[in-house]
Design brief:
By secondary structure, the chain is an alpha/beta fold. Helix content is about 50%, strand content about 10%.
């Protein structure tokens, strides 16, 4: 058996669903497909997760190369260090986004060699024909990563989209600024299309684009319905599996393969619910993954939680959907306007609800909703040191949550032996590590933290009314 096959077998995480177990081969296949596309002369584009213009890329028959995904694979296979070290040797700080560092190190090495670096994970990341960056979600690498890489590939052009993330302000009503944002987003998307038309020497087929937008909207609704099935007790799927099933959500939108995947997952979860089959046999504690990207090299930690009777029926990470009927998108024949409304209304969906609760804000409001809907006993978050975008503010969110929402009733022994009921904060755990840099991780320390957290959950459960 080849060394890589041995490593994959050794590091494989147990999944609760057949669908999640399919993801590894799926990702390996679509990375392989980028290499075949290169050989066939198709155009390849570096691009980012959740770009929200995937329909445009696919309508133009451009093959997306998901650079964050490849870095995550390197991390999951525990083979990122050599690429991170190479980026450091180029004077990039290890404190920067390690997705970006891994990609920069790999691309520089490939360009220096004129071929793939030795033993690249799943065939490696091919050279793009152009790169599509997008300044969204306050993420620095979406602006700067490809600019950094361009010094090694000066002939590869970049197109940058200023896709906005509307800031939440107490004194600004979303309805008052929406028209401005929609016009702006549409103009950015039209600029992207012009760039792609120049690069491919083909015109956009707007009928096909509209069909792909239709497909994505149907897929969104199906994903929402499927993930909501996880409310069941016992839950049929946890966050550990969701960190796999997110792949079709964020890398395969506007494809029949992505839609079919969720058809099958929906069917599987319904069958598990009918059999009353949960992630584990004895579900004691229901937790929410309340924020933060996972450590891709340590997904087995979810199995460790499971071994302690804890399951994660819901997470905020990668649950980047709301059902289309809730977004209430206006009727329009322009597929670009539909994309713009879907983007804007997804990101502002929780704004009005947050304003109705003093002290809240959109991310906190979503936590509260999920805690209530999924009967949550405790909150787990992960602070990844190199990703300030998704992780900055997690502790603040948790503090705000505990200030305005204290749903745990416990009996407390008072004076003279009398018992009284109090409401206390939800038990919480904040893990600290990174997304792909394994040097930041201690399995022993992490397991000790989980053990202590489980003891707290158990204590609260025993005191519960």
């Amino acid at each position: 058996m080849a060394e890589e096959e041995k490593r994959e077998k050794r590091e494989k995480r147990r999944t609760a669903t057949k669908a999640a177990a399919m993801i590894g081969p799926m990702v390996k296949e679509f990375i392989g497909a980028t290499h075949r596309a290169k050989q066939e002369g198709k155009k390849l584009a570096f691009t980012f997760i959740c770009c929200f213009y995937e329909e445009i890329i696919r309508a133009m028959d451009i093959v997306p190369v998901w650079t964050e995904n490849f870095a995550g694979i390197c991390g999951a296979k525990r083979d990122a260090e050599r690429f991170l070290a190479r980026a450091e040797s180029l004077d990039f700080s290890r404190s920067l986004c390690t997705y970006a560092l891994c990609g920069i190190g790999f691309d520089q090495w490939r360009e220096e060699l004129g071929e793939m670096p030795p033993d690249p994970p799943w065939g490696g990341q091919p050279r793009p024909d152009f790169m599509l960056s997008s300044g969204q979600i306050l993420c620095d690498p979406r602006n700067k990563w490809y600019q950094a890489v361009q010094q090694f590939m000066p002939d590869v052009p970049i197109y940058h989209l200023g896709m906005p993330w509307p800031l939440y302000e107490d004194d600004i009503e979303v309805s008052e600024v929406e028209d401005y944002y929609i016009k702006y987003i549409v103009s950015e998307l039209r600029g992207l299309i012009k760039f792609l038309e120049r690069q491919t020497q083909r015109k956009m087929d707007y009928d096909r684009l509209s069909e792909l937008v239709d497909l994505s909207e149907r897929t969104w609704n199906l994903i929402w319905e499927t993930y909501e099935l996880r409310r069941a007790v016992p839950t049929p799927m946890g966050t550990g599996d969701a960190m796999n099933t997110m792949v079709p959500l964020v890398f395969m939108m506007a494809t029949q393969e992505g839609y079919h995947f969720f058809v099958e997952l929906n069917k599987e979860l319904k069958e598990k619910i009918a059999r009353k089959e949960g992630v584990i046999e004895d579900e004691k504690y229901r937790l929410i993954w309340g924020g933060g990207l996972p450590s891709w090299f340590a997904l087995k930690d979810f199995n460790y939680f499971n071994s302690k009777g804890a399951v994660f029926p819901v997470e905020t990470t990668y649950r980047l959907i709301e059902p289309m009927y809730r977004l209430n998108i206006p009727e329009t024949n322009d597929p670009l306007e539909r994309l713009a409304y879907r983007w804007f209304r997804y990101w502002t969906y929780w704004y009005d609800k947050a304003k109705k609760r003093p002290g809240s804000e959109p991310d906190v409001e979503r936590l509260i909703q999920y805690i209530e809907d999924y009967k949550i006993d405790g909150v787990v978050m992960h602070e990844a040191f190199s990703c300030r975008t998704w992780h900055l503010g997690l502790i603040w969110q948790l503090n705000q949550l505990n200030k305005i929402y204290k749903p745990i009733p416990v009996l407390v022994l008072g004076p003279n032996g009398k018992k009284r009921e109090e409401k206390r904060e939800l038990p919480s755990l904040i893990l600290e590590s990174d997304i792909v840099d394994i040097s930041s991780y201690s399995e022993v320390d992490t397991r000790n933290q989980i053990d202590a957290f489980i003891e707290t959950l158990d204590s609260v459960k025993k005191q519960g009314v």
